[in-house]
Specification:
Blueprint: E1 3-7, E2 11-16, E3 28-33, H1 35-45, E4 50-53, E5 55-56, H2 60-71, E6 80-81, E7 88-92, E8 101-105, H3 121-124, E9 128-134, H4 137-140, H5 142-157, E10 161-165, H6 179-187, E11 192-194, H7 197-204, H8 213-223, E12 229-236, E13 243-251, E14 254-257, E15 261-263, H9 272-286, H10 291-305, H11 317-324
Parallel strand pairs: 1-4, 1-9, 2-7, 5-6, 9-10, 10-11, 11-12
Antiparallel strand pairs: 2-3, 7-8, 12-13, 13-14, 13-15
Length: 334
Amino acid sequence: MKKIVTFGEIMLRLSTQGHRRFSDARTLEVNFGGAEANVAVSLAQFGKPASFVSRIPDNELGLAALRRLRAEGVDVSQVIYGSERMGVYFLEPGEGQRNSKIIYDRQASAMSEIRKGMIDWDEIFKDASWFHFSGITPAISLGAAEACKEAIDAARKNGLTVSCDLNFRATLWKYGKNPVEVMPELVSECDVLVADPEAGEKMLDVTVGNAEAETFLKAITDKFPNLKTVATTLRDLSQSEYLVFSGMMFHDKSIFKGQVHHISHVIDRVGAGDAFTAGVVYGLQTFGNDMQRTLDFALAAGCLKHSVPGDFNNVSVEEVTSLMNGDRGRKIRR
């Protein structure tokens, strides 16, 4: 199998314990995470050859992050080194009606200082079939945005499928460019897109108001005709006792509606969207034209991530398939 290449920033994740507020925390739990790294880990867990490309500091923190990714089965041999700083994000996990909070500290990080020409994309893509990035990477800095465009161009030239998870982060985009000045050009070269209406409006200038998700998906593909597949998750938080998690997919002028999952208890919601995206990539590579199966697999993967602490979705294909088939995790496997 040819490898799937993801490109982005891996960060140090420092989270409060016991659902404490930042103001009350006395200790922080150390972990690593980042959208494209999370996707790579999921794909590796699913048995796909996944490679993560980034720029990290050549110090103990950077090397620890790479060791963690290697332990998860991800190829990091094409990572480059530079600068002295790894990006950090602080997480205050929510509880009940209290929202989670994230504070980013990633200015002047190694990845934010990446530039075009630093990575030999033609070499990396020689044995690759798929390239994936998210809207977070072009938001980090102008250099990261230009490096992302360079990677997309090389991926197209080498015949790879290109996917993007639109991922809007309001606290980024601080280098003088608005998302709508950058993202439409990048998305126009993609084959697969994962997006929600807010991200579509903020980053692609696709506005559908309060219309149904189906209208949003069609509007995206009308504006970007190169897109073959567009998927979105649907989250209903109106029920106080559980989260309703589902999604839709537009492919070849057809709409597919996914299984509905009722999540009664959330361990960690960070990375659920990345788990869904990885499920979409896996399904499109594995299930042929069975778009319904692809969507249901992706939703089951995203659902399971709510039960897994940390950024990475450490679940297997068998566990995802079992949930798709109705196993709600009420048994003890012996």
